[in-house]
Amino acid sequence: MADNNKKLAVSILQFLKESTTNDSDSAESIQVAVECIRDVFGVDEKDTSLQVSTPLSTIFENYLNNNTSASTTSTTTTTTKKSKEELLEKAYSEIPAELLDSFKQFINIIEQKGAFNNPDQIEPVLNASKQKFIESKKNEIKAIAEKIKVEGNNKLNEGDTKGALECYNKAILYDDSNAIYFANRGATYATLKMYNEAISDCKEAIKRNPKYGKAYNRMGSAYASLGSYEEAIDAYQKAVDIEPNNETFKASLSAAQKFAQNGEEEDNGMGGLGNIPGMPDLSGIDINGLMSNPMIRNMANQFMQNPQMAESLKNGDIGSMLNNPEVLNMMKMFGKK
């Protein structure tokens, strides 16, 4: 598929060079387009391995001839071509605000050189130019995306899930190679009870970093929230395989295994704690959603650093856990008032 794309790019380059006229302005515009396509696809039209025997213009003419009869007997659907202003607005929306003025100056320069004189070439030239600009500002854009990610983390800690989601969306728009951005957005989706979206984002994170234990753990939590305990166990197990000393991952795996074995899906992870005398009523609390909050997870992680607590959870010794004042206070915080 990649070779075919390069062959198509070379065919377009050959067509553009054949279309060069004696008019200096038109020639310069075409040369700008040629250079952009070369840069974006990394091709050279002189490379014989990428040249095809039939010119692009001939292929196009044959296509039109073969489809003439069909087009005259069927209803014609007209596709509205976007104006230059609409295309520019879309391109501007995909550039960080900090670099937008610089990008606009870049666009003005190539426009002055006649790059947009041919209406049919505006979109491909603009896309190629945008890609070239992004590549030239790669490090700056990554730094901006990281800053936005941190802002998203802060919003999520403050309970502003909508704001956090917007930040992670923007961070991914600017740098979709970062696994952490997808994992964090997945955690936000889980907080919003959008578990399928959370699973999808965790998978995207794992594609970018197959050794990302936290992504597997978050995916396991989303599967557990959907009651898909076998899938949750598989995800948790992979998290443990990556980080065998992570007590949180091991506790999550153990809990999922017990739910799958005992069929306690309807308990929502509380094991009936809502009916224990002297305890707050926790039966209506969405524990899975609650644990998606980084602040709550940090509190739970601190408890898990206590070997006695970890052992109690591992053995299912709920009684010992309830004797711990810190656990009791935390549970009362989230009980119904």
From TrEMBL:
Gene3D superfamilies: Immunoglobulin FC, subunit C (1.20.5.420), Tetratricopeptide repeat domain (1.25.40.10). GO terms for cellular component: membrane; TRC complex. Pfam families: SGTA_dimer (PF16546), TPR_1 (PF00515). PROSITE patterns: TPR (PS50005), TPR_REGION (PS50293). TPR repeats lie at residues 179-212, 213-246. Keywords: Repeat, TPR repeat. InterPro entries: SGT (IPR047150), SGTA_dimer (IPR032374), TPR-like_helical_dom_sf (IPR011990), TPR_rpt (IPR019734). The keyword Secreted does not apply. GO terms for biological process: post-translational protein targeting to endoplasmic reticulum membrane. Residues 4-61 form the SGTA homodimerisation domain. Signal peptide: none annotated. GO terms for molecular function: molecular adaptor activity. Belongs to the SGT family. PANTHER family: LD24721P (PTHR45831:SF2). This is SGTA homodimerisation domain-containing protein. It comes from Dictyostelium purpureum (Slime mold).
